[in-house]
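ENTRY TYPE: paired fold submission
RECORD: A
CONTENT: sequence, then structure tokens
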Amino acid sequence: MKTQILYVELKSGYSDDGPAWIGKGFFSKTGRTIYFNGQAFQKEKGIRGNHFNLENGDEYWISGIKNDGTDRHWAGSGIIQIDESIIEEYLKLIGEPTLQKNKFKIVHLVNVPAKQKATEIENQKREPKFDHSLRFKKPNDLTDKQLNSLIKYYNDLDMTVIPKKSRKEYIDNKNKLQGELIYRKNKNNA
């Protein structure tokens, strides 16, 4: 199983200042599943993240570490928890003699892949995943079922964690979809 030192940051409920960790990640054969700190993550582009937690659906940003040690987003802040077992290797990778005390907190992370847990979760009967390609189609090209699915997607978004510019775009898109639905109902009742 391929392993790599990874930077992992929780995005659900946070902007660029969510809890963050640096530790050893384990990859499935396909590379689509990452096991980190006793959890399993599936690769999928979200609103702010690039992976989601298989157990609770939270979005995370997961990447390799940066050679210059600037793993957090430039606009982000906060202490990064780093696994004690990889500190020496991490310092070699970034070319530093010691960790910056104001930037890191040394912790003990679970360095065993949660494959069994991931398999159990993946084998549970789940609702079909939302088809994100619907977001890029014109409202009049969608079926009623697709329109309702997309409206539900926009209603379920946590707007408090979305930047204002994107928030306005999402609200405008939802209003267009609802307008198309109303137009169709009026057309059918006429």
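RECORD: B
CONTENT: sequence, then structure tokens
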Amino acid sequence: MAVSDHDIVILSGGTGGAKLARGIADVAGPERLSVIVNTGDDIEIYGAHVSPDPDLVSFWLADTIDDRGWGLRGDSFAVMDALRELGLEVWFNLGDRDLAWCLERSRMLAEGVSSTAALARLNEAIGVGARVLPMSDDPVRTWVRTGSAGWCAFQEFMIRDRAEGLIEGLEYRGAEQARTSTEVLAAIAGARVILIGPSNPLASIAPILAVPGIHEALRTAGAPVVAVSPIVGGEVLKGPTASFMAFGALECSADGVADFYGELLAGIVADEDVARLTTLQTDTRMDDAGSRARVAEQTLSFAEALAG
């Protein structure tokens, strides 16, 4: 296969997609990788624009992710402690260096720099060679409705409310008006393979697909689209994916994931066979560098074989 710059695209939400991105960067090289990331979880807090999923991917690629799975390794929390001392309820923890990163993003956005360009500048500063692309430069926010709390923004549901309560509604507010960036469309058009990371299909990937133009670009792309299932051994490894799948009337299995993505998929990577779809059946756990590299290499080889 002739290697070209940025010929691998990953759609990513949270931890699962970020781990796959890191694995692909390790086995194929970051210069081949573009990651289109969900921004529906973004939040304005502490005077800063926080973009959890793009930052998570960035920190994984820079090898600066903390062992707890979010934020920067070895970060301090003096600002959060000081806010608590002032009597504020601090339900969203942000490390000091992480806050500095988000404040610098806010400064650039206030000066009219796009979200895409701002993140590119931040990633250049920490040595990330892959392209990490927000799904849109326009604001899109995921809102969740539960019977106990009513409608609330995604971070409030996930962190403040600990993802408790039966999910009764899900909206991607602003998606219909959002514009797809030229960088995202160019990445999809130039891809040899397109991977959907093992992220929550409804909460992490659906907001990306809801931005006008992205679903159609994927559907008509000259590259096969391959999903990696976030369901392992019939269970979700992290987060409330099962609750979201239940809300979508989807089986919490690789079959349910395939049903959600439907005609977009040319294949799926899962630890169980999906009868109606070409399947690479393998252990999809990515608990360490070795397993991330194995899953990435197997997934990439599978997708490249589908590309022909």
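NOTES ON RECORD B: Residues 289-307 form the longest helix (19 residues). DSSP finds twelve helices and 14 strands in the chain.
STATUS: closed
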